[in-house]
């Protein structure tokens, strides 16, 4: 599949994850099969204002391609310059966030709030496209509306159709409403409706993608062109290898062994040390460790060990103790289509 001029060998990509998808995480997910990753969402104002945060955002390394930069904000005037700065720094695509459901974001008229303001939303899309659209694919992330009302659905399709008319290359649709946040099941039938509506234009689906089976099923059941994996890949980079296996017609590989888990998190730790330095990396990796722990047969004990980490030395000690491949560990589990952990050999 392609987004603009950029081609992917599989339709499973890593979403922008606020507070998570830094360079270290993106490197890990690429290592395990993600063909495309997005940096965590950044405020348009932060991109254009001088400072350490801007410098960090605009640092794109040679091994981090293709990579998308996702922008969020409320002022259309700022989006164009911010998009131009991201493109100039080396981001391969520019994504616009109209989907964030966080209360603080909505209160500042950003993210999902803009689904209630089609005129402003499309002005933002136009500013970004005018700034970078001739050289960089522009994409949009949306939820299926502010709520379940007919007016919210009309606004959704007005923004969707308008964005494609302006020239965006793809739209990602999370099939929960903004009001739902992450509560309740996502409505995959809405994705099917959207894909039928847009025809050959590229639609990515999002929502409840916690296993490779769920990712493949979303494509098969709704007809979307691909999926963006968000919470399902935090502490679970193996989901991309599993998606590749199913997409190629092969059975799922075995769930990651203790040794394989240790190898992945050690690599992630090394990358985080390089990117952030020892003190900051320790704090960042604690939250990742808690997610990695879900795959360990002694998940609750390991989770408590990660929570207790206060220094880089503590983190090293956790890795040495809990990922010792020579110990006699209980059987490793894997996630089913609902994201629940089950025995490795159980029917999915």
Rg, Å, rounded = 20 Å
Q: By CATH's scheme, which homologous superfamily of the largest domain applies?
A: Aldolase class I
Mean pLDDT figure: 93
Strand content: 5-15%
SSE order in H/E notation? EEEHEEHHEHEHHEHEHEHEHHHHHEE
Through-space gap between termini? 27 Å
The major beta sheet can be summarized as: 9 strands, parallel
In the CATH hierarchy, what is the architecture of the largest domain at level 2?
A: Alpha-Beta Barrel
Short description:
With 348 residues, the chain is of the alpha/beta class. It is 45% helix and 14% strand. The chain has two domains: 2-247, TIM Barrel (Alpha-Beta Barrel), CATH 3.20.20.70; 258-322.
Q: How would you characterize this protein structure?
A:
Helix content is 45%, strand content 14%. The protein is α/β, with parallel strands linked by helices and 348 residues long. The protein has 2 domains: 2-247, TIM Barrel, CATH 3.20.20.70; 258-322. Strands 3, 4, 5, 6, 7, 8, 9, 10 and 11 form a 9-stranded parallel sheet that branches. Helix 8 links the parallel strand 9 and strand 10 (202-206). Helix 4 packs parallel to helix 6 and helix 9 (212-222) packs across helix 10 (238-247). The longest helix has 19 residues, at 258-276. The protein starts with a strand and ends in a 5-residue tail after the last strand.
